[in-house]
Design goal:
The protein is mostly helical. The chain contains twelve helices and four strands; from the N terminus they run H-H-H-H-E-H-H-H-H-H-E-H-H-E-E-H. Keywords: Cell membrane, Membrane, Transmembrane, Transmembrane helix.
């Protein structure tokens, strides 16, 4: 793996790490399987790209993208909590609807961002080389989101959200409005996913309606890898593990794509196969470790 490939993997690990932390919030904290993220990631990219194309500051464009993702998440959560639609089905319905919504927002399947300002321009103007600017911006955004999530879950509202995910019946008996907290949590999760999509679009120079395909798979793979390698003994450690799991996942993919064994090498089309192998390895590693220690 070359230095530039490793650098690119780190960039992707940090920017998609924001998405992974959002997935962790629903998947582990709220115990709410949510497939909306496959639609909310391109939603954030579409909103940010259209806003920038219309002359909005690239940093300010992240706010409507975040709000759009939050709204998409609340739709899924309301369908589940108020209308009793199964969470998986509710998220699939929202995800399908977002495909058309994203095309409507972009007035087509994609929007190019060539020759317009991005969040990296102010950093480059300070003298940071372009190939390091994105790594710096993504790293700072990821650390900021990590700090805010740890702080939020330490508040009274955050503790109530933890109780809702851990034991909703007990939380209800304590007077906690579990429906509100599920709506809030799923909204925050998809807001973070949309924020990640907005940053990815500015880095790639385009927003595309299909860029969210496989987002949930990559998110869950990163979560599982992070938990296996770094554990989740506390909230701070769990979310840090999710972020680091995203970095490890992207580095592992870059390493696999750059390997060649006996004339065999992986192609970009093998990405899903590599992801499956990584997840299986992460799932069976603890059991194998226990057996080895037992022997």
């Amino acid at each position: 793996m070359t230095w530039y490939a490793a650098l690119g993997a780190l960039e992707q690990g940090f920017v998609y790490g924001i998405m992974v932390m959002g997935v962790y919030l629903t998947f582990r904290i709220l115990d709410f399987p949510d497939l909306t993220v496959d639609g909310s990631l391109p939603l954030g990219a579409a909103i940010s790209a259209v806003a920038i194309s219309g002359g909005m500051d690239p940093y300010l464009s992240l706010l409507p993208a975040l709000a759009g993702g939050f709204l998409a998440g609340t739709v899924t959560a309301v369908l589940n909590t108020r209308f009793r639609i199964l969470h998986l089905l509710a998220s699939i319905l929202t995800m399908i609807a977002l495909y058309s919504v994203n095309i409507r927002i972009m007035s087509g399947p994609n929007v190019a961002l060539l020759g317009v300002a991005t969040v990296f321009d102010p950093v480059i103007a300070l003298g940071v080389p372009p190939h390091y600017a994105s790594l710096l911006v993504f790293g700072l955004f990821a650390l900021l989101v990590l700090a805010l999530l740890i702080w939020f879950l330490g508040t009274e509202l955050g503790q109530a959200m933890l109780a809702t995910g851990d034991n909703p019946r007990m939380a209800t008996s304590l007077g906690i409005d579990t429906h509100f907290l599920i709506v809030l949590g799923v909204g925050i999760s998809n807001g973070l996913v949309a924020l990640s999509g907005a940053l990815v679009a500015q880095n790639q120079g385009a927003a595309d309606v299909g860029m969210g395909i496989g987002t949930i798979v990559a998110g869950l793979a990163s979560v599982i890898i992070g938990e296996t390698l770094f554990g989740r003994m506390s909230i701070a450690r769990a979310f840090t593990a999710a972020l680091l799991g995203s970095v490890v996942y992207r580095l592992a993919i870059a390493l696999a794509l750059g390997m060649e064994i006996g004339g065999f090498s992986f192609e970009p089309s093998d990405l899903n196969l590599i992801t499956a192998l990584l997840v299986v390895s992460a799932l069976i590693a603890p059991a194998l470790k226990q057996r080895l220690l037992a022997r």
